[in-house]
Amino acid sequence: MPALVLLGAQWGDEGKGKATDLLGGSVDYVVRYQGGNNAGHTVVVGDQKYALHLLPSGILTPECTPVIGNGVVVDPSVLFSELNGLNERGVDTSKLLISGNAHIITPYNVTVDKVTERFLGKRKIGTTGRGIGPTYADKINRVGIRVQDLYDESILTQKVEAALDGKNQLLTKVFNRRAIEAAQVVEELLTYADRLKPYVADTVLVLNKALDDDKVVLFEGGQGTLLDIDHGTYPFVTSSNPTAGGACTGSGVGPTKISRVIGILKAYTTRVGAGPFPTELFDDDGDALRRIGHERGVTTGRDRRCGWFDAVIARYATRVNGLTDFFLTKLDVLTGWEEIPVCVAYEIDGKRVEELPYSQTDFHHAKPIYETLPGWSEDITKAKTFADLPKNAQAYVKALEEMSGAPISAIGVGPGRTETIEINSFI
Ligand code: GDP
Ligand code: IMO
Ligand code: MG
């Protein structure tokens, strides 16, 4: 049976949480494979709204086993507050599994994230300040703390001391901050060990056995393709691989097991934090997209930057992820515009460019070339089939599909679970 990957095709916040939740009823496992509580996934079930940061969106489907894979970075205090919040609302979270190889976001990683941003000044990335980058940096530098380290106090102490050695030099001598005591960090981390223990598992084995047993496994990406550390708009990216390959390294499931890669694509574009964004709008249209689309960050509460749909980016996402399908979200937000511009190519230094330039300098100079499509004014939030959509909305979807290079298999017409038009079934 299939393993499916569901990931963001733009700069995050495409509606991955809603899409994962929608598929949750037909899958056995939902796996987060990268990122951490920098993500903010909104799921609306009936009149209940949930904001998930670290937990896979499958946690809201009782039949589903939610898994935090080895590629994720885990802040235990955030994990417990998220679990507590869900438990108070009657959600059973007891099936959760967490990889013993996942790395822990320590309090000093959060401190380093914040001071580094402050020192970057105008050149800051606009991170979520959750310690994500420094935790992945520790992992790559081989001084990271893993979930399994919580169960060997002497090893944990040695590892925290090793990690803090260099960091305290940096904090005191460069950033003018107080040194962090290793013993205090160890003491705090150990307070999480017992509560975490029942969830800790060899998730690589669990997932591969599940696939051998014909179970359906859904990988849920955090962030989006253009925030990928390798394939995104570096350095204005996150520090992990949300792109499809990350699902394999971040879970220990091989690429031959993956049968479907679904790109979640917003009907327009948004971005949070700094970095290039060719179709960004600074006018009334941008404000209207933000207002109608409720484009405010789930994690940091920052207003999202808004702009028209960018087909160059969508084509790029199709290529680097090997997308088999798109799930187009928030089409309803575009209702009411007489005409809707769509970016089909860029102008860079006087030349028309059809594909995303590999050069950062070129991308910073890219100006959108728009084609204008006719809009629609009818309410589409009750549409159940493609044929229910007004002709111009149908034409908009078809145009995006043609430009983006993969079939649009579902369309979101509202935030709720049922506000979705399913065209091709995913499973
Ligand atoms: P994620 O990070 O990709 O999970 O996306 P976010 O949850 O950060 O942002 C997407 C927002 O759009 C959330 O508030 C969702 O409830 C909402 N949403 C998702 N799909 C649709 C849709 O089709 N229409 C509308 N109007 N809202 C949607
Ligand atoms: P979801 O999963 C949108 C952005 C931050 C910043 C950059 C680096 O909800 O789509 P980080 O804290 O990760 O080091 O910040 O990445 N960013 C997101 N933007 N949605 C997200 O997650 C994001 N996670 C990180 O704003 O620009
Ligand atoms: Mg989000």
Automatic annotation (TrEMBL):
Tell me its EC number(s), please.
6.3.4.4
Which EC class does it fall in?
ligase
Report which reactions are catalysed by this protein.
IMP + L-aspartate + GTP = N(6)-(1,2-dicarboxyethyl)-AMP + GDP + phosphate + 2 H(+)
**InterPro entries listed in its UniProt record:** Adenylosuccin_syn_GTP-bd (IPR018220), Adenylosuccin_syn_Lys_AS (IPR033128), Adenylosuccinate_synth_dom1 (IPR042109), Adenylosuccinate_synth_dom2 (IPR042110), Adenylosuccinate_synth_dom3 (IPR042111), Adenylosuccinate_synthetase (IPR001114), P-loop_NTPase (IPR027417)
Which UniProt key words apply to this protein?
Answer: Cytoplasm, GTP-binding, Ligase, Magnesium, Metal-binding, Nucleotide-binding, Purine biosynthesis
Q: Which domain of life is it from?
A: Bacteria
Q: Which GO terms describe its biological process?
A: 'de novo' AMP biosynthetic process; IMP metabolic process
Name of the protein this chain belongs to: Adenylosuccinate synthetase
Species whose genome carries this gene: Streptomyces lacrimifluminis
Gene it is expressed from: purA
